[in-house]
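User: Please fill in residues for this 136-position structure.
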């Protein structure tokens, strides 16, 4: 038996945000994805990038990736379901900082398998905009 691939869908503004902040998508990551606002902190950018992976917003991911480390092509796996984001630790990355570090755990499901991606991500702010630099 084969399972059909799921497709990415943008949540309704009143749906719960995929980053699980407790806010609606429109009041949380949706405002960043739409370009209405820029993420004010490294953590907000991390949450919005996680949500972009969850909803398949490839362009937002590329737009918020530092040009020095941004891939030329970004393929997203629609069969990978991002289920939960846990912010573990942050260093700097506030509204007045120019750099920040966010350590997180992203829980996912791929078919019947479950996993966790744990990463320490580096961010920089250029001209008021936070950008993802890299992660380990």
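Assistant: Residues filled in for all 136 positions:
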């Amino acid at each position: 038996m084969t399972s059909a691939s799921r497709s990415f869908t943008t949540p309704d503004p009143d749906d719960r945000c995929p980053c699980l902040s407790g806010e609606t998508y429109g009041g949380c990551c949706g405002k960043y994805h739409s370009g209405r606002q820029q993420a004010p902190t490294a953590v907000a950018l991390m949450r919005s990038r996680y949500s972009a992976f969850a909803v398949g917003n490839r362009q937002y991911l590329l737009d918020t990736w530092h040009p020095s480390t941004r891939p030329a092509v970004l393929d997203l796996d629609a069969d990978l379901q991002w289920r939960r984001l846990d912010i573990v630790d942050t260093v700097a990355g506030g509204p007045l900082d120019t750099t920040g570090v966010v350590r997180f755990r992203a829980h996912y499901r791929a078919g019947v398998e479950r996993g966790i991606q744990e990463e320490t991500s580096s961010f920089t702010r250029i001209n008021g905009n936070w950008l993802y630099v890299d992660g380990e």
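For context: The first strand starts at residue 80 and ends at 92.
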